[in-house]
Amino acid sequence: MWDEEHSKWWFSVLDIVGAINEQEDHEKNRNYWKYLKTKLKKDGSEVVSLTNQLKLSAPDGKKRMSDVLDSHGVGLLAKNIHNAKAMAFLDWFVYSDNSIDGRSRKKAYTFIESNLVDEEDVGTVEALQQIHAYLFGGLYDFAGQIRTKTIWKDGTLFCRAEYLMKNLKMIEEMPESTFDEIVDKYVEMNVAHPFMEGNGRSTRIWLDLMFKKRLKMCVDWSKIDKKDYLDAMRRSVSDSAVIKALLQGALTNKIDDREIFMKGIDYSYYYEQEDGNEVIGKE
User: Fold this and answer.
1) Would you say 201 and 269 are in contact if contact means Cβ atoms under 8 Å apart?
2) Which of 223, 244, 245, 283 could anchor a disulfide with 250, C-beta 3.0 to 4.6 Å?
3) What are the boundaries of each domain within the chain?
C-alpha cells in the first residue's frame, strides 16, 4: 500500500514471509509469523516496533487489518529469517541497489512527475530518447543514443542499423489520436528497438505518456501477466490483436494515481528480469 503522506510503500508481512519461504498457504504463513514475532519480541528486535497495522485487500475482496512493514523493516525481517532463501529474496527486493536495473528503476519512479517531455512532443523519437537518457544516464555510455549496430533477441531480428533512422522517422509520423493508433505506434517502435539495451522499459513509459496525454488514460500494468505480455509482444510483429486486448483490459483513467504509476514501474522492470541482459546478439 502506498503511503502518500510519508512517501513510502507498506508491505504485508504475511506476503513477505510467504515469498521468502515460498509458501502459499495463508494459515501456515500466519502461524510462522506468530512464532517469529513472539521470538523477535523476546529478543528486543527492532522489527516488532517497526510493524504497523493497515487495512489491506484480501483475495476475497474484503479489507482486513494486517501487519505491515516499510522497506527498511522488510530488510530487517529478511535478515531475521535464517535460511538461504531469505538472502536471495532480500537481494531481489532491493534490486541489489547498485545494479543497473535497481538504479534506473529509482529514476523511473520520478520521471513522469518531472514533466520533462512536452505534451506536443510526447510521441516523438526525441521524447523516447529523453526517457531512455533519463533512465540510463550514467549507467550506459549510450543512454539516449540510437544504436548503430544490428541486434536480435530470441531469434527475432530487429530493424537493421542501416535502415533504422529512416524507419524511426516513419514511426514518428504515425498518428496517435486513438487507442489503436497509439498501440500500432508502440508495436512498430518495439520492432525497431532503437537502443542497444533498455528498449522495453523505455517504450512502456513512452506508451503510457501517449495514453495519458492523448486519451487521459494509462495502463495498470499489474493487471497484465508477465508471460501473457511477452507472448503478446512476440506475436505483435504479425498480429497486434492480442497485445491490444491485454492493454485495453488494463486501461484506467487514474492517471494521477501515484500507486498505479509506481506499480506500473515495478511490473515493467519485472517483465525484463527473465533474460537478464536484453540484447543477446549484435553485429
Assistant:
1) yes
2) 223
3) 2-93, 100-282
**Residue-level pLDDT at 228:** 96
For residue range 241-275, list pLDDT tens digits in order.
999 999 999 999 999 888 888 888 989 988 987 54
DSSP string, the chain: -EETTTTEE-EEHHHHHHHHHT---HHHHHHHHHHHHHHHHHTT-HHHHH-EEEEEE-TTS-EEEEEEE-HHHHHHHHHTS-SHHHHHHHHHHTTTTTSHHHHHHHHHHHHHHHT-S-GGGTTSHHHHHHHHHHHHBTTBTTTTPPP-S-EEETTEEPPPHHHHHHHHHHHHTS--SSHHHHHHHHHHHHHH--SSS-HHHHHHHHHHHHIIIIIS-EE-GGGS-HHHHHHHHHHTTT--HHHHHHHHHHEES-TT-HHHHHHHHHHHHHHTTTTSSS--EE-
Task: Evaluate if residue 130 carries a pLDDT over 70.
Answer: yes
Domain 100-282, architecture per CATH: Orthogonal Bundle (1.10)
Query: Grid coordinates representing 230?
Result: 511477452
